Amino acid sequence: MKEFKSGGVHEDIFFKEDIEAVKKAGDLIEKFNAAGVVSKGVYLNEPEVWSGNAGRIAGHKVLVEPMIKGEYFKFNSNTGHAEPDTQSMQALSHFTYHQSKGQYLLCDLQGGRYDGFYVLTDPVIHSKNKEFGGTDLGADGIENFMAHHRCGRFCSPSWKMPPAKQLIPKFEAVCGTTFGEAAALFSDEERKDLEIKVKKEMRISIRKLWENALPGDKNKNQIVINKSKKVEKKTR
What we know:
The chain is an alpha+beta fold. It has 4 helices and 11 strands; from the N terminus they run βαββββαββββααββ. A 4-stranded mixed sheet has the order 2-8-7-5. The protein has a 3-stranded antiparallel sheet with strand order 1-4-3, with helices on one face. A hairpin with a 5-residue loop joins β10 (221-225) and β11. The radius of gyration is 24 Å and the shape is globular. It starts with a strand and ends with a strand. The model is unreliable at 3-10 (pLDDT under 50). It holds the Pfam family Alpha_kinase. One of its GO terms (molecular function) is protein serine/threonine kinase activity.
């Protein structure tokens, strides 16, 4: 059961945002299952809005969903923290980023893990336009999650990744759920310096890749012109 502080129209907005997030999450999970990324099916609890009629919830609206039996797991957070031995769920988060072309990312995954399936509850969706309430950290949340994300055996090398400079995290990955804005991990000056270093490292890495891919001995020799203007073959 999930309860919001009462407050007229604000309460209605919170429920609407939660339900809309669950609908979008269900759509993304359905695509993940259809893609056959992992052998276990992934299911999502869908909440309903009820009105309390007794005790402390009398007169309050609450979100109610089926109880998750057995051990309860928190697989990742909305800032990119990932628990050990949860590669299937980390792949689910990455897949949603890839499948939506970087517009959405499903995270804060938690629920039950059973022999043949998962049951998730109360997930978070980050969206470019911050469509889903206080836990939706927007474009910064998407980039930060992917910066902390480490691909495992279920992530495909063909899946979309952010540009290199966006893989510098914006804030710390913590295990709890973050609401609103998180504290910056680097100052603006530190970030600019890191972005310059990333560009340099990318150029070096790309050159090494294509040089090593050259056929035969072409990647071992280099034609150079010495100071006397004579052409020489230099062996690396």
